[in-house]
Amino acid sequence: MNICMVGTGYVGLVTGACLADFGMNVVCVDKDADKIAALQSGHVPIYEPGLEEVIARNERAGRLSFTTDLKRGIEDALAIFIAVGTPPKPDGSPDLTFVRQVAEAIAEHMNGYKVVVTKSTVPTGTGRMIEQILRARSRHEFSVASNPEFLREGSAVSDFLRPDRVVIGAGDARAIEILKEIYSPLYLVETPFVITDVTSAELIKYASNGFLAVKISFINEIAKMCELMGADVHDVARGMGLDKRIGGKFLHPGPGFGGSCFPKDTAAAADLARQAGYNFEIIEATIRVNEKTKRRMIEKIRAAAGPLAGKTAAVLGLSFKPETDDIRESPALAVIEDLRKEGARVRAFDPAAMPNARALHPDLEYAKDAYDCAAGADFLVLATEWNVFRKLDLDRLASLMRSRTMIDLRNVYEPAELRRLGWTYAGVGRG
Ligand code: NAD
To answer: Ligand 1 in contact with 323 (CB < 6 A)?
Structure first.
């Protein structure tokens, strides 16, 4: 089957490459000519473990190619996936300009029956909008479907190949059959399929990300309670998470959620409810708690390191989570912003995200590695829990720094151990 994947970002590139791995012929289209040129010359423009091999394997097999020619991609495909960005507008609602543009291009260039599938995270009603565009501008038959994506950056390839579920929303049997055929390798390994209407599928994505965000904000509130009451959030989270009705995942406290999905999708869910005349109170509170959590990190740093003006901070980690170069809405950057507002000088290091960070903040000081970052610093902030930061040589760090002070926003280190070694140490929620 011929597939056209429109939008070759974190989602489109992984989905396109993995569908090619399932045996489909996939053309990945993007309007960013530099990105396509890089992919055509064998360079993968994002950091995502395992992705390079999947791309290389499928390009060699002739099942995967890259182009800026959307017209050709549309003409050749039976299924067209829309995986373009849906960034937030200032009022929190998702900007559907790119989705609309692609729908208009599909209407203009389609040359026979197509199933148009939204992979991007889009608000309910988007399927209907696409349908209207196609119906108004094209005489060909089509189906519109929703197939939201749940992969996590940093483990996107394995998430795509071994998902917890596949959600297919469509209004007609033909589209459902085509999507089941596309995902048949997963069907064979007994991945659960949720087959529903387009609107329910669109809402499943917001409900899922909204719920995960609630869990994170909840444990961050518990972390604050632990600090006030002298309890240890790790024990509390474990005690909660062993209850199967709660589950232990996403109960890790930290500097708040970031990335390209949770902040945007919670804002979109709140906006979607508002548009429908409803106040989605739990989501509204989750967003507020996250903002408060991000901003309270500077208080923690000040409490451990003293007045910050004129001091040098070594910040380890810039990406919003480990194993990705994505810095969108990264809590690490919020912390850096607050540090600089208070007059601190910031040196930073990240194993993968420095090119992206440099493009956005050319004026930051970037180090070669964790030790280079710590050299001459008054305190160290562990902002993203990359594996390379988990077993740092603490004596070496101490010999390079002006003071043994660590603010560990990801609770990587054991407070008692660090204190025994003479460090001033602050974690999150560790009483
Ligand atoms: P991204 O910004 O990395 O990639 C989007 C790509 O679309 C860009 O390369 C851009 O050039 C391209 N594009 C925009 N308009 C285009 C057009 N008219 N024609 C061709 N290409 C066009 O975004 P992403 O992180 O891959 O996210 C895409 C969607 O998937 C979003 O709706 C997001 O919410 C959703 N999503 C993301 C993740 C994730 O972890 N990143 C997970 C699940 C769902």
So the answer is: no
Amino acid occupying residue 157: V
- Identify the CATH number of the domain in which residue 412 sits: 3.40.50.720
The first and second tokens of residue 226, run together, are: 């632990």
CB 8 within 8 A of CB 46: no
CB atoms within 10 A of CB 1: 14
Q: Domain range for residue 369?
A: 211-426
Same domain flag for 36 and 150: yes
Among 260, 272, 319, the mutation site with the greatest number of ligand 1 atoms within 8 A of its Cβ is 260
Catalytic center residues = 261
Q: Does residue 205 form part of some domain?
A: no
Angle between helices 198-229 and 233-241 (to 10 degrees): 140
pLDDT tens per residue across span 146-177: 999 999 999 999 999 999 999 999 999 999 99
Q: How many CA atoms lie within 13 A of 268 on its CB side?
A: 27
Q: pTM here?
A: 0.96
Last residue of a domain, one of 196, 221, 242: 196
Distance 344 CA to ligand 1 centre (A): 35
Q: Is residue 183 in some structural domain?
A: yes
Regarding whether 364 and 306 lie in a shared domain, the answer is yes
Number of domains the chain contains: 2
pLDDT digits 0-9 by tens, 345-394: 999 999 999 999 999 999 999 999 999 999 999 999 999 999 999 999 99
Q: Which of 13, 14, 30, 208 to mutate to test the pocket of ligand 1 (most atoms within 8 A of CB)?
A: 30
CA of 8 to the centre of ligand 1 (A): 7
6 CB within 6 A, ligand 1: yes
